[in-house]
Each structure stands twice: as C-alpha cells, then as structure tokens.
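By way of example, what follows is a protein record of this kind.
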Amino acid sequence: MQNTMLSRFYGLLLAALAIVLLAPAAAFAADRAALERDARNAYNKLVARVPAAKALSKEADAVLVFPKITKAGLVIGGQYGDGVLFRGDKIVGYYNTSGASYGLQAGAQQYGYAMFLMNEKAVHALTRNEGFEVGVGPSVVVVDQGMGKTMTTTTATEDIYAFIFSQKGLMAGIGLQGNKITPIKP
C-alpha cells in the first residue's frame, strides 16, 4: 500500500513537473500563433486597401510586418512591438522593434507598419548583424497617402518602403528613424 501511494506521489510530481516545463512552451507557441495571425491579417488588409502596397508586394524580396507597435512618451518616450518576416507566403523569421526618444512629446499611440524589402541587399542588412537600425544602412522611404496613390513598381527604386497603418491614440507625428529592429530568438 505504501508503494502504491509512493508511486502515485511520484506520478503526480512528474505530471506537475511536465506541466510546469511545458506550459511556457505552449504559451510561447500560442503567442507566436497570434502574432502570425495578426501580421497576416494586417498585411492582407494593407495590400487590399493600398494600391502601392499591392504593387510592391509582387516585387518585394520579403515583407516585415509589425501588426501592433505601442508608443508612449512624456518628454522621454519609447516604443515596442513584435513582427513577422515573410518571403512569399512563408514565415522566415520573427523580429521586434524598439526605440527611445527625447523631446517635446506627450501621449500614447498604437500603430502598425509593414516594410517591403525590395532587394537582397535590404534582406541581407536585416538578417546579418542581428537586425538593423532604421535610418542606418539601406534607405527606407515611409510611404504617405499621396505617394501611395502615385507610386508604381517602375518609380520604386529604393531598398525599403514602409507603410504605417491603423494609427490610434493621441500622439502627434510618427517616424521610424532611430528604431532598432532585432530578431526574436526561439
């Protein structure tokens, strides 16, 4: 009888240990699945609504999509978000973007952005050196509404084009300069 109770105790201990060890992996996989879903949805909406994004999507070597970036500041500010790197329909990496700022600023905002990496040089700049700082290295052009209406793949000659979307909040202006993009390690 004592051996049966001891066996049950060890069985319960082993089950509890398995739950403790496997729960973070399951949560990480669920978070990653949600990130992938959100990134695909944001990308599909952008391509459906913005003709320039649709045109660039056909020519881009890869697209890095950050579905939700949170930015907040009061004199000193910061921003952070996670994204997915797509090559065609395949997911080839996970990245985060972060940045800090200082100046006359107050408020909070959420937005997303997609970076169309138009050539291998741009993809290589992202994948080597553990990511890159926006504004250092390949040229990045932020496409506004006016440019988005007149842009074609013939006029697109830069390395990277970024589209900002789904802006919500109370912070004036938005820029990508100074953001650091780094890979998320599995």
